[in-house]
């Protein structure tokens, strides 16, 4: 089986002083987390069972640090590859902890919220030895995000990989509007413009695919937020029932569960805002590429007429039909990324409070029935 990642892409960050402070504080909290896991390992032995380790450490880590829930989950696995006592100068990332926002800026989750930081792509290296999708690294005077790339980097693909979809479309439009003009008088003028149209179609396909993924992500995040809202509301009823019965020992763990769910909801709402932004960018991209294709089709038709091409009319009509396809509805991509599931703590307390809540509902309805019968 081929390795998941075959090369490494390096983003060199240019954080502001406030950004750098947030990054260093996040690394400091991550070091606290590693210390907690070191203590558990010394007291109970190393565990390869991440579920068991989650149950042992998750609540303590959330109480003693301000780390995002997703970073805590990634850190549980990351701890196994570290040597106790070594300084913490890096931490694992995934697509929910960092996101490329434009050709010049990315967003990074820290304990002080998401930071928008300027970056530059510094190049590729062969191989990716890490288990995480990406890693934030402080090295000498550099602040880097290293990312695993599924395909090996190729010289012709490097420019495309470092461009956002909007900047890529701008480059294609500029090529059609200016570069192709000089080629119109050449021997291969028709082939040159047709190739430009094919490149525009490829950009359009990328834009549609990106819009589909963002739309699917939006629906998935909305559904997850609604699910968490329902669960938080349900827990509120159980908490009230527990307090009414004087069972604070059961209520406290459930309140902790409710707080964790609210933190997950906040993270999901941030991700939802990013998905909506991606959808807007994809819409702008499709509008731009549609305009570029119309211009290229018009140039091709004029060129064929000027050269007396017999199939000029048929070619123009075919291009118009293809152009209409660009306005079709955005497709939905079934593949979606996962999010952290509901916390596993407090399960038995929830069941006990559910029983008490049901008993309270029965008693209240019985009292109403008795009151009605007496009147």
UniProtKB/TrEMBL annotation:
GO annotations of cellular component type: cytosol
UniProt family annotation: Belongs to the PspA/Vipp/IM30 family.
Coiled coil regions in record: 211-238
GO biological process, one term: phage shock
Matching InterPro entries: PspA_VIPP1 (IPR007157)
Any Pfam family hit: PspA_IM30
Keywords, ordered alphabetically: Coiled coil
Protein name, as recorded: PspA/IM30 family protein
Segments for region (Disordered): 304-323
UniProt KW Isomerase keyword: no
Coiled coil keyword on record: yes
